[in-house]
Amino acid sequence: MKRILMVAAVLFSLLLVSCGAVGGVSTTIDVKMTDFQFQPSQFTVPAGQEISFSSSNNGAVVHNFVIMKLGTSAGDMFDEEDVPNVYWEVELVPGGITETSFTAPAEPGDYEVVCRTEGHIASGMIGKLTVVPAEE
Ligand SMILES: [Cu+2]
């Protein structure tokens, strides 16, 4: 029974996320990290705005939320040469939670989001931050 409720809760949150993607420009990001996914993995924020970021690591290993600079990609594996291309990042230990904030990039576009822990991109820890022009 508990399991069914959990599945229902997950489905409901997926529904909210997919509705959110339509008109879903938000100054709030709430992301759960698992082994090895971002949930959700797509975010839309207004350019240049302060974004509230809350996250939890529900996995068993260290995870990161790394926003790459516009036009850059960490490729299949995050390594030293990708470090200068990081726009913003946060690291979470297993079981960790964080509430912080960052300023959205000024330039609209699609930004790659990855987990920089070794092997996690290949395992599917990848997402997308879409930056849209802020409303005047
Ligand atoms: Cu990870």
Protein traits:
136 residues; alpha+beta; five-stranded mixed β-sheet; four-stranded mixed β-sheet; 1 helix; 41% strand; globular; binds copper (II) ion
Instruction: Give the radius of gyration.
Output: 15 Å
**SSE-based structural type:** alpha+beta
Q: What fraction of the residues are assigned to beta strands by DSSP? A: 35-45%
The bound ligands are: copper (II) ion
Shape: globular
Low-confidence stretches: 16-22
- Profile the largest sheet: 5 strands, mixed
Describe the structure in your own words:
This protein has one helix at residues 2-23, and strands at 28-34, 37-39, 42-46, 50-57, 63-68, 86-92, 97-103, 109-114, 126-132. The chain is of the alpha+beta class and 136 residues long. The protein has a 5-stranded mixed β-sheet, with no helix packed on it. Residues 16-22 have low confidence and may be disordered. Copper (II) ion (CU) binds at residues 36, 63, 115, 117, 120, 125.
Quick synopsis:
By secondary structure, the chain is α+β, with helices and mostly antiparallel strands. It has one helix at 2-23, and strands spanning 28-34, 37-39, 42-46, 50-57, 63-68, 86-92, 97-103, 109-114, 126-132. Helix content is 16%, strand content 41%.
Please render the helix and strand layout as text.
Elements: H1 2-23, E1 28-34, E2 37-39, E3 42-46, E4 50-57, E5 63-68, E6 86-92, E7 97-103, E8 109-114, E9 126-132
Parallel strand pairs: 1-4, 3-9
Antiparallel strand pairs: 1-2, 4-7, 5-6, 5-8, 8-9
The chain binds copper (II) ion.
